[in-house]
Each structure stands twice: as structure tokens, then as C-alpha cells.
Amino acid sequence: MTSSKTTESRGYSATKDQLLGRLRRIEGQIRGIEGMVDEERYCIDVLTQISAVQAALDKVALGLLDDHAHHCVIGAEGEEAQAEKTEELMAAVGRLMRRG
Fold first, then answer.
1. What's the domain range around 36?
2. What CATH code is carried by the domain that includes residue 87?
3. What is the value of pTM for the model shown?
4. N or C: which end of the chain has fewer CB atoms below 10 A?
5. What percent of the chain has pLDDT over 90?
């Protein structure tokens, strides 16, 4: 995972607060699962919550992919840059699809 501290805007910049809110809710869900395990709750209930967290993360990932496609791929200047960003996007999709 790479990150840079440049002034370059990201595709999700406009929805950053919403994205952070979703991630905080997911973080709360994870803490809830931890509590369920600590309390030795029924396995299926824990698995149900894990599934909910995975779905929430998938929704965040799809939103980021959409933002990347619109901002970084379509907005890339020049065919070579657009091709590079498209390849990068498809690699990210491939990584998301291989999980699990």
C-alpha cells in the first residue's frame, strides 16, 4: 500500500467525511464482534456480524473504485496515463475479487 503526502487531490476527496464516517462505523462493528467473542456468543451470530462487516467494507471499496475510475482513470491526461491508470484499477479489482 503506497501513500504520498502531495497536494494532489484524490477521487474521494469530495466524500472524505462520508468515507471516514463509514469506516468509523465499521470500526465500531469490529469492536462489537470482539465483544461477542469475549462474551462467547453463539457462533452463527458472530459469523452474521462478520458478514455484515465484510459487506460494509465491500461497499466502501466499490465506492473508492468508482471514485478512482471517474477521477483518476477518466480524468487522466493522455492515452498512456489513462492506460496506466486503467491497468492499476483492474489490478485493484483483481485483488478485491481474490480475497477469501
1. 14-95
2. 1.20.58.1000
3. 0.78
4. N
5. 60
The owner of cell 492499476 is 88
Number of independent structural domains in the chain = 1
Q: 57 is written with which cell numbers?
A: 467494507
Extract the C-alpha cell encoding 67.
471514485
- Joined grid coordinates for residue 86: 486503467
CB 55 within 8 Å of CB 46 = no
Contact 68, 11 (CB under 8 A): yes
Task: Please indicate, yes or no, if residue 1 is contained in any of the structural domains.
Answer: no
Residue 65 resides in a domain? yes
CA nearest neighbour of 50 among 25, 30, 20: 30
Q: How far is CA 41 from CA 25, 49, 65, 87, in A?
A: 21, 11, 35, 44
What lies within 8 Å, CB to CB, of 33 at 6+ separation is 46, 49, 50, 53
pLDDT, tens digit (0-9, with 9 covering 90-100), for 6-32: 446 676 766 889 999 999 999 999 999
